[in-house]
Specification:
Layout (H helix, E strand, L loop, with lengths): L4 H21 L8 H13 L4 H9 L3 E2 L2 E2 L6 H14 L4 H21 L6 H11 L5 H4 L2 H4 L2 H16 L3 H16 L8 H11 L3 H19 L17 H13 L7 H17 L7 H21 L4 H4 L5 H16 L5 H26 L1
Antiparallel strand pairs: 1-2
Helix pairs in contact: 1-5, 1-6, 4-5, 5-9, 6-17, 6-18, 9-10, 9-11, 9-15, 11-12, 11-15, 13-14, 13-15, 14-17, 15-17
Length: 366
Amino acid sequence: MKHNAIPIGLAALIVIIYFSAVAVYAVNAPIMDDYIQFLGFHYFWESAADTWDRISLLFSQPQWDGGPQSEHRIFIARLASLGLLEAAGGINFKLLILLGDAFLLGIMALLWRLTPDLEGWHRLPVVLLLFSFIHYEISFWSSASLLYYPATFFALLTFSWAERMKGARGFLGTALSGACSTLSQTNGLMAFPAAALTAALNRRYRHAVILAALAALAFTLYLWDFQRPAAVPRLDVTWQTPLLVGRAWLYLIGGVFDDYAILGGSLLIAIWLFLLWKGYWKDRFPLFALGVWLYVSLLMVAFGRAALGPSALGASRYEFYSAMLVAVTYLALMERGLSRSLKRLGFLSTTLLVATIYLLAIPPAF
């Protein structure tokens, strides 16, 4: 690993600017889902009959008006809110937001560790993209920051553990991190399947079977007494459904490219088909598995939101997964043994693109 104080210092500056902005502009007040996911949860927590009811509440879907209001089981977010309630003596939404945003640091640290051959300069576009406000809804909203960021962090941690899953310690690390991803947000369910697929591609069949078994267990427990929220529209299946979902998926994949989302999404898919053809999974298990997980996560969003139209698909919180996909794709290409001149071109062009995204994201965020 090549260390250089200047890129590390610039990365630290980007992070400081991000958290300073969040600390100043985030508000200590509930927003939309916060009323149910935190205030409603604490109401039911205080009125729970016994310890078993409280444990069940931690793992249940957010409830209000006699029915589920979300498809997510948000154990991690609820646990965080209880911890802050104990520490601060009340619900502080700004602290919840900052706690959720802190998982971005974990994601950055894992990506940094998983790309040991890259120079510090080459990682800067990833840092700038992660700590941009392209996904400002998550940055300033506790109900999003404690779902999206933890789900991604724990998914990547799962893939990191799964790569070296040896003995009881490796199995326990994989199982616990995968469970945490699952209990952060619904798409966390796909952490175990993505790891199993990558293990199978690497012909590590024993690990693939173990991961598939964990996936089956996670799905079984997650879907136990699961109810579809009334607010989530049904997607009527017709001959047009695949086209509708496919277009929504492409749009979500290329979300960071704004008006050129469909084109950007198509380009990202083409690049990953190239990486698949070149056998990228053979030497970069965690990053390849993360790419698979991100694609499947956006496909899940496409199925759930395609019926709501472009306005729903364009929500900035979904652009976080698109930004992550751009970051992982960039890292994958930079690690493909490119010549020095091609790496320089890739770094400069990506830096220009990401800097543009960073600047354009500021006005709508503030």
